[in-house]
Each structure stands twice: as C-alpha cells, then as structure tokens.
Amino acid sequence: MKNRIIAFTLFACIGITAEIFFTSFYDNITSVMEGGTWDWSLSGNSYVWMFFIYGPASFLIPFVMDKMVKIPLLVRLVVYSIGIFAVEFASGFLLDKLTGACPWEYKTGLHIMGYIRLDYLPAWMGFSFLLEKLVVIFRELKLIPKAAKP
C-alpha cells in the first residue's frame, strides 16, 4: 500500500511538473510567433486539481501498458493519448459542474467544449512515452507491481 501511495504521488508530481514546463515553453513560443517577446522568467502553470488527475496514471498506465505490450509503439502512444483525452474531458466536465469552472478552459486551437485540445495530441504522445519509461523504472524500484504472467 505504501508503494502505491508513493507511485501515485510520483506520477502526480511528474504530471504537474511536465505541465508547468509545457505551459511555460508553449506560451513563450506562441508569444514569439505572434510577434511578442520571450519571457525569460519561464513561468508556467498548473492547478492543484491536477494532482488527483495525474496520480491515477500510476495504476492506469501500467494496466493498459500490460494489455498492449505487443502493439507497435506509435499505436500505443495514440491509444494512451485517447485515454488521456477521455480523462481530461471527463475531469474538466466534472470540475466545471462541481465548481462552476474548468480551470484549463481552452478557447483557442482545435478544442472540444473547452475541455480538451485535439491539437495537443503530439504533446500527449510524448508524455505517454515518458510514462511508459517511468513504469519500467518504477517497476524495477518495486514501486509498481510487475506485469502479471498470462
């Protein structure tokens, strides 16, 4: 149980950290492309809610990964990303209904109801690749159980 809590916390913190890096660089690149300047403070953002949204990846990703072990990497990354979109949409929708607002409400890009941005697919695929690698590392550290034998 202790290792599950540690893994949950690690995945949550890794997700939030990745989000802060992504928003920092994305906002700066967008600013420069629109004729603005680069903000060297490199400030990014996330939300406390994300801890509870990224944390479950500690058991969801290993479960799905074990089922798709023989599927080509690119297909796995797309499947993970679709799952991420589903979680992002559902959590955004729930937060909107429970609190009156979705913290990450998208207003630009190819979005669906402001909850997900389909044009973020490559970023989510990259994040999924990172998560797969982390599952392997965390299994070696015995923070996540090894895959069950069929």
Write the layout of secondary structure elements.
Elements: H1 2-33, H2 49-54, H3 57-67, H4 73-99, E1 111-112, E2 116-117, H5 121-140
Antiparallel strand pairs: 1-2
Question: Whole-number average pLDDT?
Answer: 94
Distance between the termini: 24 Å
Helix content: 55-70%
Number of domains: 1
Ranges with pLDDT <50 over ≥5 residues? Answer: none
User: What is the ordering of alpha helices and beta strands?
Assistant: HHHHEEH
Total helices: the number is 5
Q: How would you describe the oligomerization state of the chains in this entry?
A: single chain
Strand order of the largest sheet: 1-2
Strand share of the residues?
under 5%
- What's the story with the biggest beta sheet? 2 strands, antiparallel
Work out the radius of gyration: 17 Å
Q: Looking at the structure, what is the overall shape?
A: globular
Instruction: Tell how many strands the DSSP assignment holds.
Output: 2
Class by alpha and beta content: mainly alpha
